[in-house]
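Continued from yesterday's entry.
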Amino acid sequence: MRQIITHFTDDDLYKFTMCCAVIDNFPRAQVKYTLTDRSDTVYPPGFAHALEEQIKMLESVTITTEEIDFMKLRCRYIPAWFYTYLKGYRFNHEWVSVRQDDRGHLYVDIEGCWSDTILLEVKILAIISELYYIMTGENNRFDYQSYYDKSYEKGRRLLEAGCVFSDFGTRRRASFEAEDTVVRAMKACCHSQDWPGRFVGTSNVYLAMKHDLLPVGTMAHEFVCAIGGMYGPQMANHIAMNSWRNTFRGALGTYLYDSFGWDIFSLNFSEDFANLFKGLRIDSGDNYGQLMQIVEKYRSLGIDSRTKQIVFSNALDTDSAIAIQRYAKDYCQPSFGIGTHFTNDFDGIKPMNIVIKLIAVKITESWPFYNDTCKISEDEGKHTGDPEVVSRFMKILHIE
């Protein structure tokens, strides 16, 4: 079977920025991740073996001079030493354990040094998704010309409505070609006339390079969840924001706040952090309710929320993004990160609902044990991690 991931930067920008911050702040931390398939998918026979082969193929993927030059040009906030690290970086299939049970369910676990394994998550998710459609034959139904036209129309509607938006769809894309088609269509639409909205770019660094766009992204829940495992969830956001400031000195100032719920984040979000970070990202809960909590928090600190960027990224589609834009523009500077709706929206094809989440961490390899961690979502039923760990963290944080 052909190799699915062939470019080192065919990955989300935030994996690289977090990797840089991890080396800078937690260089010896060790972690464990696990796959969660929310749809309880039955995978084709032999899928686990095929996935193992794809993961082994990653060992041949290294960063190129062209990719480094592009990142240096477009990601000036990343320190020069990080590219020396990436030049020497090599994937290792032994970090990953894959198996498939008798019913066809898939299990994937990752363990190793945080700064190494952090670059596996998005690539493995993208491989699983594309591989599934290949092995089931559903990829034969992908009509990329029709998909280009469909994507162009989505872009036209968003731009006409004044939306500022980016592609966030690498992890659950139907295929690399699907995401490439979307980015191509969105760029062409954006340049077709003078719109009130704007297509900012893509989270995928390689596609940003290919299409001369801005790579977009900052951080993921993983960064805060790991810190919560090492130090406890009460102060995890405070430590995470300080660590981020230590590495990026005010750049990449959009903070993802919902790893352990709004209430504990709000207690950690002091005036200095509110002024330092240019905005927040909403990735769970009711978009409108979350927005108004944020607006009220800024008001309580004497800050005009209209000066702040709020990035909406919670399971958006074209219609919901346009509706949010109309409402939110009076309260903030709204922007949108749209994922699966962009990159896995073929007629008759069910998108995968898979995530890989960090579940355990230790601050140094010399510790004989890991500390459990989890993610507590603002969406009911979307907490990730062992249920007992989720319950324990919720009790610590006084979450009903």
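--- second protein ---
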Amino acid sequence: MSILVFLIIILAFIVFTGIINEKLFHLQADIATIFFSLIICLVLLIVSKLFSIRFLEEFVQKIGEFGFEEYLLDGALCFMLFAGAGKVNRAKFKQNIRPISLLALLTTVISSFLYGGLFYLIVLLFGLPMDIWTCVLLGCVVSPTDPIAATGILSKIGLSKNVCSVIENESLFNDGTGVTLFIFVRSVILHSGDGNFFVLMFKEIVGAVAVAVVASCLLFKLMHLTADPVKYILISLLDVSAVYVICEHFGFSGVIASVVCGMLFSYFMQGMERRVRIIDVHNYYEDFWEMLESILNAVLFVMIGLLVFNIEISRFALIVIPASVIILILSRACGVAVSTILTGKNIPGNYNLGEFVTLMTWSALKGGLSMALAFGTAEYLPPEVYSIFINVTYVTIFFTVLVQGLSVKKAYFMLEDHKAERMRQAR
């Protein structure tokens, strides 16, 4: 299937599901996109199985063969991260840097290993063909929260700026931890000896930050040589794409580098705000990145829905899927609790421990990066284990985006009411 035909299919899904939602259901746009895409794809899949329609069978097969991992990791991810990081509130980030750092680093590590340990108990109980390190690897896949889901969904449902800042910034930075941990555990499984986790982490973070800072500072100087706002956009595109490719080539974290690039360009652009106001009177730069983020988000959520064509249901699905959801919530809650205790008394939003753990657990949405990591295990995992990985990851994404994403606003306001009552009684 040609890229243009695939693009037409994607755009058709986005437009028609968007109009249906706007007229009838009024769900948050990104949630509606992934939900209705899944429903349509399931209907097509069922029809293709029940009736021998050659055109439909070929369509389903070709859609399922599209390279989701390549699209996300080798294409759209860096631009989506750049756009999301460009909207980071620096004052809120500095104010909450301790809890953000602990959540992004410690929570991800704790939840990944705890998830693996709890999942291994299910393995032993039901005789699944997995060892402890494979279970931990699965934990590394599903534990990191997704920055694309966080910025695309949570920022639009009415959470306070302070709370939203913690959730979004954790999501932007914890993927670097998750990917590094994933590489380390994978090396243990493959006996490739890629080194100590902390050495890998240091290399990925320091290398990514160094490349992002040097390249962004150099390329941003080109902004002063032009009075064309379109070239501002092109320079920013060049920066994040070049930095991402360089980091991936040298084994640094392209994810973290893209986030740093976005924050740096946002800072630099504010530093020359007077010049930008004169040159970019129509606000092309900010509008471009806002629209690009919205389009890429919509495309990604449709593609996640389309992935149902490419998933084979594991014979252990009825066991692992319910268990994986429970384990996901427990491991995340424990990881957040440890990080929050280490944060001290200054918990963001003036929450107590239980309130903050509840909010950060229920707002932890998963997305495309988890799916891409899961697909990447096909090369070295046995088919039966790989099938478990894909099933668990796919259900995890849909549970967090649909169930948690649709209810997190209600949960947030319930916690706000609980906090207000607690503070009233303390007076």
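The chain has a mean pLDDT of 88. Residues 383-426 form the longest helix (44 residues). Will compare against the first tomorrow.
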